[in-house]
## 1
Amino acid sequence: MSIVAERAFEETAVSEKAKSLDDVLRNASPSEVIESALRIVGREHLALVSSFGTESAALLKVMADVDPAIPVIFLDTGWLFEETLAYRDTLIARLGLRDVRSIKPQEDALKREDPDRELWFSDPDACCRIRKVEPLKRALAPFDAWINGRKRFQGGSRTEIPVVEGDGIRLKFNPFANISRAGIEAIYAQAQLPPHPLVTSGFLSVGCMPCSSRAQPGEDARDGRWRGRSKNECGIHTA
Ligand code: SF4
């Protein structure tokens, strides 16, 4: 069998496994989803990807209650707010996270494709590719499955995400697919989680500095991202 055929075979098997897991887990609680992921692939093969953004502490808290040693991948794009880096450190200490891996873009890619640091303006898809998509691909290489914090209530392409899906040769678990905004707020309140430092100054969703803006009255949280462009996803879930 050729490498391409082998890969296609593997992806089909993962996709079928994801569908049957989704049937079982579609009404499970977030912690049950994470427990199942851990049981199915084992800690060495499972990672959670977090932006340490405005809603991230909720998923990290649920994960930490299940197992604080699950590896957490954080994409440090080189364009993050200082407040986000500080928040990462606050949550590591507060939740007892034992394996947070801060992943940076490759230096040679930055020098070659974004020497003047203006790619976010001229070609944001390329900027996200070298600062997020490719680093995540490298970071996930040792893992068979990953967990992320997307929610259906965020709208757009997230409206119909399943709880478990195939992502190429990996399983992707979305423990918060079903949760409501009130559910997220309840986790923050119950655990007395600190808010992201930029929430008090009007940011409802925080990513890279050039591509995050304050939400205006009546806007959804993610409307402040890539303002004025048709882009609404960085590509790690869609590439
Ligand atoms: S969000 Fe903006 S700055 Fe960050 S990687 Fe994407 S385009 Fe570049």
Note: Residues 3-25 form the longest helix (23 residues).
## 2
Amino acid sequence: MKDYTGLPSATLVTIGCLLGGIAPGYAGPHQEAPPTTQGTAVEPAPTPPAVAPAPAAPAPRKEPQAKAPAPRGEYQAKGPPAVPKHFRGKYLDLVKMALTDLLYENDTGAIEARKAGTDWPSRALTMVGLKRLDNVQMCAENVLLHKVPGDFIEAGVWRGGATILMKAILKEYGDPSRVVWVADSFEGLPAPDAEKYPVDKGLGFLHEEQALTASLPDVRANFERFGLLDDRVRFLKGWFKDTLHKAPIKRLAVLRLDGDMYESTMDTLIPLYPKLSPGGYCIVDDYFNLEAQRKAVDDYRREHGITEPIKKIDWAGAYWQKRK
Ligand SMILES: C[S@@+](CC[C@H](N)C(=O)[O-])C[C@H]1O[C@@H](n2cnc3c(N)ncnc32)[C@H](O)[C@@H]1O
């Protein structure tokens, strides 16, 4: 594991200023009360200590050495090896700002929309706003901290942003084994089957919306840009009803649903919820925003006697923690 504690303090200060300056008013993810399970409080992920590097000792004089020639060819981002403790949170804050395109957006209205996750952005890699990304982080960090077994999945990834964040969290914590499953048609939403799922009837516009389509090569490339593509990122291409029940997933610790429609939500819950470990999290991106998704979740919960309280993330999203 690489140790950055010896970085010159000027470098640390520069990074600190950058991270402090990119998100005015953005206080990071650890504001929510920790979820409880059967009366047992689950500790929130620890807030990273403020960066306070010890003054650097004068570096010992080194004899100049012949440098090996720099490799030529395409630059390949390697991503962080495993982020040292004093950068924890800061790296992920920066990833979230990049995923939401808040690093480079100048328009005030667009900035507000991106923070709240209320638009279909032209460049951002996720349409999920900061609170819902913070929620992904909170859930992922809790299962890592409490060693809840299982992989992470999002069903309905669009350009991949929320799953890129999941992978960044695993990288940050140096997790050696969990897989991030990236499930999507990569061709947009299905046409509604109004006879079978009447509540989806009015959602034909989602099927016709080209802006809701992101291709598999593009999503792979998005992981690569962050240096986060490896063999523990697995893509499940196709309609959920065809892919999820036969996917080689053994256990899940984080299950995120973002397929918008009743059909897509049911086609995810039926094969995957039974695989969610006790202590794991089920996250529903549009529970308060889309009646179709809410009804699918409510129907599934009722049919399976799920009584864990649903918690609000923001104007759209909800989640619950599966009981031990
Ligand atoms: C609202 S977008 C997801 C947004 C994404 N989670 C983000 O972070 O920005 C919905 C996605 O779900 C996918 N989708 C919806 N229903 C599906 C289904 N039944 N099978 C496969 N993909 C589906 C669409 O292709 C689309 O990419």
Note: The pocket of S-adenosylmethionine is lined by residues 126-128, 154, 156-158, 161-162, 184-185, 188-190, 212, 214, 239-240, 258-261, 264, 267 (CB under 6 Å).
